Amino acid sequence: MRKKWIIIIEIVVILIVAVWGLGRCGKAAMGKAFLNMEPQTHTVNRGDIESRIEITGEVQPQTVVSIKSKVSGKIVKFYVAENDYVRQGQIIADIEPDYNQANTLFSTKAQLERAELRLENARKDLADKEVLLQNEYISQEMYDAAADALTTALIEYKQASNQYEMIRELDVPGKVTHVFATASGVVIERKVNEGEMVQSSMNSFGEGTVVMKIADLSKMIVQSNINEVDIAKFSLGQHADISLDALP
Predict the structure, then answer these.
(1) Any idea which architecture 58-224 has in CATH?
(2) Does residue 68 have a pLDDT over 80?
(3) Per-residue model confidence (pLDDT) at position 93
(4) Strands of 185-190's sheet, edge to edge?
């Protein structure tokens, strides 16, 4: 048993000596290699330190126009669909006016026709009165009254004409009225479907129903939420790199 322990101790001593010898050789080799290395030099230049901040956002059109109808009623037909390009003034939908809207249109048009007739009669009456005044068949007061009547008829005609101009585009043949595009661009969203009722944008009860939205896709912006910790690192006119996951 004693002899066995002596052998184990000798083996441990031999291992320790071997490890120590290998360590000495390794250090010597590393030192020699370090001494043989050629020094490398680098030139220090003055420059800017780049700080990058990555944030996510949403690409949106800079200009979006909401198209509304000037008349309340039912959508009977669409002439454009989403992703279609439309030009300003193009017909985009037909609406069948409700009873109140149709009655307003007919009443305004009839009022204009009556005002036009009164104006024509007033002009003719003043011309007749002028001839009678020259022949001294009537007094100056009668002529002045005819002139005042012409002035009143002209004012009433202008008022009726202005009221009709506000809804003139709704006066189309048949039982429908047109909805026109108020701007050029791409239809990005259609808010209602055929057969649905829409509210006029000219009444006093609300802002009216949005029929569709048109956007100018030639000018886009990116909307992002920036952390308040990083907001001080941004400045007007600063360069930004934008990458998209996919193209529309």
Answers:
(1) Beta Barrel (2.40)
(2) yes
(3) 92
(4) 64-68, 210-215, 185-190, 85-86
